[in-house]
Each structure stands twice: as structure tokens, then as C-alpha cells.
Amino acid sequence: MGDMNNDFYHSIQLPGFDIPGNLFLAPMAGWTDKGFRSICVDHGADMCFSEMISAVALDRNNDKTLELAQKADNEKILALQLFGYEPKDIYNAIIRLELLRPDMIDLNCGCPVTKVIKTGAGAALAKQPSQIVAIVKAMREAVRDIGREIPISVKIRSGWDHNSLNYLEIGKMVEDAGADMITLHSRTRSMGYSGNANYQHLAELVSALSIPVIGSGDLFSPEDALRMFSESSCDGVMFARGAEGNPFIFEQTKQFLANGEKIDINIEEKILSALKHLEYSIKYYGEEKACREMRKHICAYTKGITNGNFLRQSVVRASTYDEYREKIDEFLRLNN
Ligand SMILES: Cc1cc2nc3c(=O)[nH]c(=O)nc-3n(C[C@H](O)[C@H](O)[C@H](O)COP(=O)(O)O)c2cc1C
User: Fold this and answer.
1) CATH assignment of 267-334, among 1.10.1200, 2.60.40, 3.30.70, 1.10.260
2) In this predicted model, what pLDDT tens digit does every residue of 41-65 receive, in sequence order?
3) Where are the alpha helices (DSSP H) in 188-320?
4) Hey, whose CA ends up nearest to atom 29 of ligand 1?
């Protein structure tokens, strides 16, 4: 296709530091741990968000929670996402997290899960824009008290439901309150993950704000990312489900935006990346936990590939690296 002649791929300037590019890994609870982030960095992700981290749990000195916040070995940027309701909890969490020297702190205002909503956090905050403002102010205060520039961002949905779309109102309020960046997942809470993300909402938010606006929603291919960039003029995109078992989407999108060409990833490359992913996880979490956690990732890596079912069924019982290796070798022989 040749040169696409667009400037969609670029760095993002924030106070304190520049993000070198604008293709991010979205925060995904249960998925974006250090192992997965490491493999995404290897394949070109410019910045990866942690899983959402409970400010309340951090404040209670919960070491497990602090572990969620650690940087992966090959990550240059540590971008942490917090969830909570009380500004003071978020303030205390940021102060506590300073020992890890994060480069960016994001506030979750989009999680639709009942357990989170019940506490007033996540997407429930869409019903209380003034609470979001209070939290963002507390985040600013924490950064000021730390005495180091740490950019603050907020991740929102389009609204609670289709009768209460308030992304523009909330966007302007958080910008005024001092947020440095905002991400919009343009679905409502009521939609959960169903229906389609609405890139028109994103375009409106981009026009209304002067801080960088990042788009999230339905990014399953480089073409989807191109469409989001061109329909909304967003400053960056965040891959979520489209990166599950598919960390290649970052390098593919970078290439596609540059010259319209698609890098082809063959089955062997896919499976060897899965194995590398497992090696990272073992280094971080030990063999037992890594092998258990890897099962869902293997299901994602093998989705839609020939004999994928064979591998999915055989790793259900794999609990050591050697067992994975053996099944993977068998799978590769089967596919040759
Ligand atoms: C399994 C899963 C876990 C998620 N966890 C989080 C989270 O912890 N914080 C957050 O802000 N969004 C979370 N999300 C939302 C994603 O970041 C993203 O905004 C959403 O999936 C839309 O993008 P997609 O349609 O490309 O998947 C999660 C999504 C999925 C599928």
C-alpha cells in the first residue's frame, strides 16, 4: 500500500516525561500482570497499564496489592491504575506507591463489576462527577506533596447508561481539576462489553479538551486502530481484549500506520512468544502460579489456529515449564 502519509503514530508530551509512542496496553484485571506486560513491551507496546489496584487495600499495607504495582524488568514506564472512592484513600495510596516511583497514575472510573460499583468506585463514579473532581484534586495534592512531577490520568466510560451520557461534562471537569490525560472507553456501564464502542463520543471529547485524549474500545486489529485514529483524531489508543494472546498487535499496528503493511505472525512465532511469556511469568511469580495463570493466556494465543484445541486441552493439566514445553513441541510437530 506504500506510505500511508499520516502522523497518527507519535509521542505524547506530559508534564514530567514524554511517552515515546501512543500505542498502549489497557489496564485489564486478571490479565495485565508483569508477565503479560513484559511480552507486550517486547512486541512494541509504548506503555502498559497495571491491573487496577485497590487504594483501600494498599492503604492497609496489603503486600499482595503492592506486588500488583511492581514494574516488569523490561518496562521503561510504570503506569499504575488505582480504584477507590474516598479521595483520602487515593491520596494515601499514591504516597505509599512512591517507593516504586511510578511514572503515571490513572484513576479507574469505568469498572462495571458489581463488587466495585457497590463501593461507589469504578463506573459508579460516573453518577457522581463531583466525587471524581475531589479525587483528581487529591491526586494532584499527593503529587505535590511527593515533590516530583507524576502525570495523572483518568479512564472513563461514556456514561452510566444511554440516558446519562456525561463524558463531555466529566472530561471538562477533570481537565479543570488538573488531570494531564484522559482515556475514554466509549461504552456505557449498562453496556458492559456488549454492543459497539462509539468513536463519535471520542471525537467530541478530543474537540472539547486540550489535554491528550486516548481511545479505548473494540480495537482488535491494526485496521481498527487506524479507524479510531482517523474518525476521532484521538492522541493515542489502548488495546485491551485485542491484545489477549496477541501482543503482536502493537508492532503490527505501528507498521500498518507507517506504510499500510501487515506483518504476518505465523503459528510457530505465536507459540514461541507464548512460551517466552511463560518464562517471564515464572521469573516473576514462580513456576506453579505462572503455569496456572498461563492457561487462559494459552487459550487466547491459540484461538482460531489449527490444532489449537489440542494445545488448549493438554495444557489444562500442565503444571511445570517442562510439561508446557513438551506439549508445545508436540503441537508444533503436529502443525508441521
Ligand atoms: C478482562 C478485562 C479486564 C478489565 N479490567 C480493567 C481494569 O482493571 N481497569 C480498567 O480501567 N479497565 C479494565 N477493562 C476495560 C479495558 O481496559 C478496555 O477499556 C475495554 O475492554 C474496551 O476495550 P476493548 O473493546 O478493545 O476490549 C477490562 C476489560 C477486560 C476485558
Assistant:
1) 1.10.1200
2) 999 999 999 999 999 999 887 788 8
3) 199-208, 222-232, 249-259, 267-285, 287-301, 308-315
4) 28
Pairing between β-strand 23-25 and β-strand 152-159 as defined by DSSP bridges: unpaired
Ligand 1 atom closest to Cα of residue 110: 11
48 in catalytic set: no
| Active-site residue identified among 40, 48, 109, 111 | 111
Nearest to 210 by CA among 255, 176, 244: 176
Ligand 1 in reach of 140 Cβ (< 6 A): no
Our answer on whether the CB atom of 240 is closer than 6 Å to any ligand 1 atom is: yes
Ligand 1 atom nearest residue 220's Cα: 26
| Full-model pTM | 0.97
pLDDT in tens, 62-119: 788 888 999 999 999 999 999 999 999 999 999 999 999 999 999 999 999 999 999 9
User: Could you identify the residue written with the cell 490520568?
Assistant: 153
Q: Are 247 and 269 in contact (CB under 8 A)?
A: no
| 12-259 CATH pick, 1.20.1250.20, 1.20.1510.10, 3.20.20.70, 3.40.50.970 | 3.20.20.70
Give residue limits of the domains in the chain.
12-259, 267-334
Residue 147, C-beta contacts closer than 8 angstroms, at least 6 positions apart: none
Is there an atom of ligand 1 within 6 Å of 315 CB? Answer: no
43 close to ligand 1 (CB < 6 Angstrom): no
Cα of 165 to ligand 1 centre, how many Å? Answer: 19
